[in-house]
Amino acid sequence: MKIKRLATLLCLLAMTTVMMADEFIRICTNNVEMVLRVSGNGRVYQSYLGKKLMFENDLSHLRQGGEVYLTHGMEDYFEPAIEVTHNDGNPSLLLKYHSHETLVTDKGAAETVVTLKDDKYPTSVRLHYVAYADEDVIEAWTEITNGEKKPVMLKKYASNLLHFNRPAYYLTSFTGDWADEAHMNTTPLKAGKMVIDTKLGSRAGMFNPSMFILSLNRPATETEGECLLGTLGWTGNFRYTFEVDNKQALRVISGINPYASEYALGKGETFVTPKFYFTYSNQGLGLASRNLHDWARRHQLKNGEGDRMTLLNNWEATYFDFSEEKLCELMGDAVRLGVDMFLLDDGWFGNKHPRHSDTQGLGDWQETADKLPHGVGFLVDEAKKKNIKFGIWIEPEMVNPKSELYEKHKDWVIHLPNRDEYYFRNQLVLDLSNPEVQDFVFGVVDGLMTKYPEIAFFKWDCNSPITNIYSPYLGKDKQTHLYVEHVRGLYNVLDRIKAKYPDLPMMLCSGGGGRLDYKALEYFTEYWASDNTDPVERLFIQYANSFFYPAKATCAHVTTWNRSASVKFRTEVAMMGKLGFDIKLSDMSESEVTYANAAVKNYNRLKPTILDGDMYRLVSPYEGAHASTMFVGKDKQQAVVFAFDVYPRFGDKRYPVCLMGLDPAKQYRVKEINLMPGQRSWMDGNDRVYSGDYLMTVGLNIFTGNKLHSRVIEVTAE
Ligand code: GLA
User: Fold this and answer.
1) 148 in contact with ligand 1, CB cutoff 6 A
2) Which of 358, 463, 524, 557 to mutate for ligand 1's pocket (most ligand atoms within 8 Å of CB)?
3) Distance between CA 469 and CA 411 in Å, rounded?
């Protein structure tokens, strides 16, 4: 009996020692907190992630949680975050706490760095967490350093691992294809593993964009529920693994896809993973999105707080079939519309193999002499004369086999030396692991800018995924580095462009929206969401992307896709993003042109609200017949509501829609704008003054029973 009591006492004592030895590392924003626990056994656990805790004293009550960066080869039974084979063949890693520190980054955020070390091998891992207080966004990444005398093999090297312990999880993922981007699918996560990944290399997100929403306990709505929005900043292969274990705990591992990408880390080298960006909200998805938008504009998106140009693009108006005369005519259309810029798309280059279609010319970045006899300079001058800016399309990472570049430099192309080439859109991908290729790609932008310094904008396209993967440059031992080195090579190029042309706006495009992530947006002011510009399809695509990306970055153009939708409807969908036109005025009636010109003026006036304000998704297009999004200026003086009736059925029931984000105490005038010439508003309660409280509690009848009908409603504080 005595022995039993003694044993219990010793055990309690031991536990107390462990408890006393535990140290907590708090990674906090204004409203969100992640708690890491350094346990008495020297290992580090994630004890908590959620709403910020009020009292430090409560930390000791937290459960231990899951190990913060699970390793392969030790006692865990599930997917690890890291797998390393040491030079002696030992495949295990045991990471123990070494130290931690908190610094302030140059963006004013708090960066916590936790250093872990293996106790048998000189391998160290540094976990970085940067917490943006006001935006509730956390960036997480990892540095892995090899202190051994010889290389170690990295087989898995996640950016981040998160643990959750809830009764239920719901994952919203995004899937798509060319012209069919960003479908949202929500599924409960049950015991087992769900993997979202890509192996496409360059046009990496063509089938799966790199964003996910995780709801905890129950599916979050716009205004309620706990959710985490996560996305990896990597312009290449990524992988998210969601694994629910035997105890119903969930681990989320985010990082580069280790598929075919074992990485030999040399002596003294450090592998820096890409950043995983996430935000958590306990008040639903709307708040989480607004936090990401604020963070993006303030800290991540190129020139995130600057202005954006409206434009007219010639692609849909001409495809490859244009002349100087036609382009000048289109510039005249741009002027009549009142947009800021004319954008010349594909088809302006190549002489031996002129780019008359997508079958040839890619790689030969000289103007086609018989198509543009006076060169790009003439077009820049013409635009200048018309008082608009000039932008140009390039696809500098790619090559058509029918090109002078390919004839000269097959060694610059990713291809298997002893197999037939496989073409995606008749083209191949240049090998950006090769510094000479990086110079060439940089030279495409630099060459044009040097020759024509008044080029004001680039649309940078990327139409092919990587196929037949083999780098003539890397040599036979380093082939598994290619997916990673290719992306790093791209960043080298983009870093050089950003350093030399810091204010140059660029659009990220990839056969529509095939490549989109927040690391790329460090270099690009905006992105092309889809080649599909049917406004009904765009309602869905832009809605999905709005969970992660602000309207300011989302290019949306008015085209002739879906002519059964009016020009007004098409324009109003595009006004919810960065507005552009990709249409000839001859495809529009006189009154439509008058309308569009006035719409551009309205857009310019409302830009601070739409592009820099807070976005509220009022009605999802997934609900069926209607959709609505509103934007509210940061000072709550102005708001704009976009309302769309898509295909309401005969018996459609309509209810007032409650607005959001206004000041309840302010009085607002509500006015339908953007009407067609001669059209009068028949909206219920138009041009009246209401309190913000009324508009947010009772709402407005913004919808109609008409098919493909749209409304823009301006809400102005009196
Ligand atoms: C891609 C882009 C389009 C257009 C064409 C040109 O498909 O997404 O917008 O630029 O290339 O070939």
Assistant:
1) no
2) 463
3) 13
3-state helix, strand, coil in the chain (%, to 5): 25, 30, 40
CA of 463 from ligand 1 middle (Å) equals 8
Beta bridge partners of 192: 244
Place of tokens 């504009």: 297
d(CA 678, CA 590): 13
Ligand 1 centroid – CA 512 distance (Å): 7
pTM above threshold 0.70:
yes
DSSP structural state of residue 320: T
Q: Decide if 216 contacts 228 (C-beta within 8 A).
A: yes
Q: Rounded to the nearest whole angstrom, what is the distance from the C-alpha of residue 571 to the centroid of ligand 1?
A: 20
Note the pLDDT tens digit of each residue in 133-164: 999 999 999 999 999 999 999 999 999 999 99
**206, 321, 509, 528: which to mutate for ligand 1, most atoms within 8 A of CB?**
509
Residue among 116, 66, 75 nearest 95 (CA): 116
Q: How far apart are CA 140 and CA 277, in angstroms?
A: 6
* Smallest CA separation from ligand 1 atom 11, residue: 511
Domains with residue ranges and CATH for the chain: 19-300 (2.70.98.60), 311-613 (3.20.20.70), 616-717 (2.60.40.1180)
667: which residues sit within 8 A by CB, 6+ positions away? 689, 690, 691, 692, 717, 718
Which residue's CA is minimally distant from atom 7 of ligand 1? Answer: 511
Cβ of 559 less than 6 Å from ligand 1:
no
Model pLDDT for residues 96-137, shown as the tens digit of each residue: 999 999 999 999 999 999 999 999 999 999 999 999 999 999
